[in-house]
Amino acid sequence: MTDNPTQLRNKTRKTLTRAQAILHPVRARIIVALSERALTPQSVARQMPEIPLGTVYRHINILLDTGMIRVVAERKVHGVTERQFSLIETQSYVNREELTADQIIGLVGALTSIVQATFGRYVRDYPMPPEEGAISLLVKSLLLTREESMALRKTMQEYVQKTGRKPSPEYERRFIAYFAAPDTDISEPDLDEIEIPLPEGNQ
Length: 203
Description:
Helix content is 43%, strand content 10%. The chain has a domain at 1-125: Arc Repressor Mutant, subunit A. The chain is mainly alpha-helical. The protein is built from seven helices and four strands; from the N terminus they run αααααββαβαβ. A two-stranded antiparallel sheet has the order 1-2. The longest helix is centred in the middle third of the chain and has 25 residues, at 101-125.
């Protein structure tokens, strides 16, 4: 018996690894959005207005089929079932044993697209030049011991775990991107540190 197109699509979705599921830039952005709170597809789409709603639905379904997100609420709206989705935190981390070299580069590209989209919204919605302390841009190669590197990683993880906070005047929503990898380029010692210059007071 031959599978119909829907069955073939479902089989393809279920064979994706977590790394492959995250690899697409749209799915990476959806994961970031759902890591903060449960959202409907329409709410997700409002955060990425350049992406058609149908495309958002399709990628949400892929993440649902791969077990990375779940339905946390349903309600009827004008006779149609509206669902809210939330990230399954334990499934959002990629098993390093699943990663290939191409997938690592692809994941970096997907995450970089999120950074670009976030700064794009910022420069669109806020007056320029930036207010003091509004943005930080830093790329730097450091000499760290293994223990120092792991301590830095732990500190970043502790801040990430604060995403469960409820909105309050006390808090300001900040976008943080953390990338770290061994730096194998030792051929140019004068270029081992690159800091994006900003006007004084805007770092």
